[in-house]
Amino acid sequence: MSKISIRLKRVYEPADESDGLRILVDRMWPRGMKKSSFEYDIWAKEVTPSLGLRRFFHVNPKDNWEEFARRYDEELAENEALDKLADEIRQTGATTVTLLYGFRDPVKNHAVVLRNALMKKLEL
Question: Which DSSP string do the residues of the chain spell out, in sequence order?
Answer without folding.
Answer: ----EEEEEETTSPP-GGG-EEEE--SSPPTT--TTT---SEE-GGGSPPHHHHHHHHH-HHHHHHHHHHHHHHHHHT-HHHHHHHHHHHHHT-SEEEEEE--S-SSSSHHHHHHHHHHHHTT-
